[in-house]
Automatic annotation (TrEMBL):
CDD domains: GGCT_like (cd06661)
Residue runs in coiled coils: none
Domain of life of the native organism: Eukaryota
Species of provenance: Chloropicon roscoffensis
InterPro entries assigned: AIG2-like, AIG2-like_dom, GGCT-like, GGCT-like_sf
Domain Gamma-glutamylcyclotransferase AIG2-like: 5-115
Signal peptide, first to last residue: none
Family: Belongs to the gamma-glutamylcyclotransferase family.
GO molecular function annotation: transferase activity
UniProt protein name: Putative gamma-glutamylcyclotransferase
Length: 161
């Protein structure tokens, strides 16, 4: 089954997705209620955290393959984000369950929101270079892990035993 992912920061940029995934998956406008977006100090990207009464506008990526999901998990993984199931509103007021990367650290910040337009104007070039390096280094590891998992699945008849 294709995965859905709510994105609210750098992963909204088609240029970033193209470098990371080699394509730009289908997306639609979406809103995540009871969360707020904030600038991560000393970084060009944002985080989100639970915040009753607030909302975050972003995009809902759909038709992500397993390998794309694994790559994005590795990209957003580490100590800063945790992947959570959230309920988002699509532009037609439909509610859908999707994954989102939620900032795990408590960061004291001003309520200043993050802007995709500002990111693309001032930080995109350097961020794309970092994405290219990630795909070269980590992307190969991820592809190797996927090949190994596929071989394991094939050798066990697909039942994982």
């Amino acid at each position: 089954m294709a995965e859905k992912l709510f994105v609210y920061g750098s992963l909204q940029s088609p240029a970033v997705l193209k470098v990371l995934l080699g394509r730009v998956p289908p997306s639609s406008p979406a809103r995540l209620n009871d969360y707020s977006r904030f600038r991560v100090p000393s970084r060009s990207y944002p985080g989100i955290r639970e915040d009753r009464g607030s909302c975050v506008d972003g995009s809902l990526l759909s038709d992500l393959t397993v390998s794309e999901t694994v790559l994005l998990d590795a990209f957003e993984g580490g100590e800063e984000y945790v992947k959570r199931k959230v309920e988002v509103e699509e532009y037609r007021d439909e509610r859908v369950v999707a994954d989102a990367y939620v900032f795990r650290k408590h960061v004291v910040t001003a309520r200043e929101d993050w802007s995709l337009e500002e990111f693309e104007e001032f930080h995109l070039e350097g961020f794309l270079k970092m994405c290219e390096e990630f795909v070269e280094e980590e992307g190969q590891k991820t592809r190797d892990e996927l090949r190994w998992a596929k071989c394991q699945e094939n050798s066990t008849g697909g039942d994982g035993e």
